[in-house]
Amino acid sequence: MRRDAQARRDALLDAAVICFHQSGYGVALEDVAAAAGVGRGTLYRNFKDRMALVLAVFERELRRIGERLDPAGSLDDTIATMALDGAPTTALFNRLALDLPLDPDSRRQFEMLAERMATMLRPIVERAHDEGRLDRSIGTRQVVLVIRMISNLLLKHQSREEKQAVLVEVLALFRHGLLPRSVA
């Protein structure tokens, strides 16, 4: 993609995040285009419809989180990073969830995003299993649920310091609850 075309696409995604946060899923796409400083035609050249725009927003955020993820990092650090970085995306998803028409194709595309997240986490989860820091019955899906729960908790706090304090407390709780149990 040419640099100017990529810049317009990025502007549309940035504008979509703002507009979806403010007005929900039903925001007029013309408003998104105007907020991005482009015409409606540019929006439709980049995104075939509203759902394609929503999916592109979440795909970009998942890619950004993946870029900041340290594959050699600990499970705790990974959960903390993904929960903190993912909190704004969680807020956006929560805002849109009630209005998203999840037909079978859209549902499959959202499930594919969840699978990409699980794939990013798999080596870290497997290493935690091997190190005895995570019960083997806990897989990537459950770790994704933990991250989503923590992200939702973090939405209630404003400052980074408050969020860090909550993270420390919640991670200690999860760490204890996710440890392998000795078999008697």
Give a structural overview.
With 184 residues, the chain is mainly α. It folds into 2 domains: 47 residues, Homeodomain-like (Arc Repressor Mutant, subunit A); 129 residues, Orthogonal Bundle (Tetracycline Repressor, domain 2). The protein contains 8 helices and no strands. α1 packs across α2 and α7 runs antiparallel to α8. It is elongated.
SSE blueprint:
Elements: H1 3-23, H2 29-36, H3 40-46, H4 50-68, H5 75-97, H6 104-130, H7 140-154, H8 160-178
Helix pairs in contact: 1-2, 1-4, 4-5, 4-6, 5-7, 5-8, 6-7, 7-8
Low-confidence stretches: none
Shape: elongated
Radius of gyration: 18 Å
Gap between N and C termini: 59 Å
Biggest β-sheet description? none
Structural class: mainly alpha
CATH architecture of the largest domain: Orthogonal Bundle
Helix content: over 70%
Can you tell me the CATH superfamily of the largest domain? Tetracycline Repressor, domain 2
Features:
single chain; 184 residues; mainly alpha; Arc Repressor Mutant, subunit A; Tetracycline Repressor, domain 2; 2 domains; elongated
What is the structure about, briefly put?
The chain has 184 residues and is mainly alpha-helical. The chain contains eight helices and no strands.
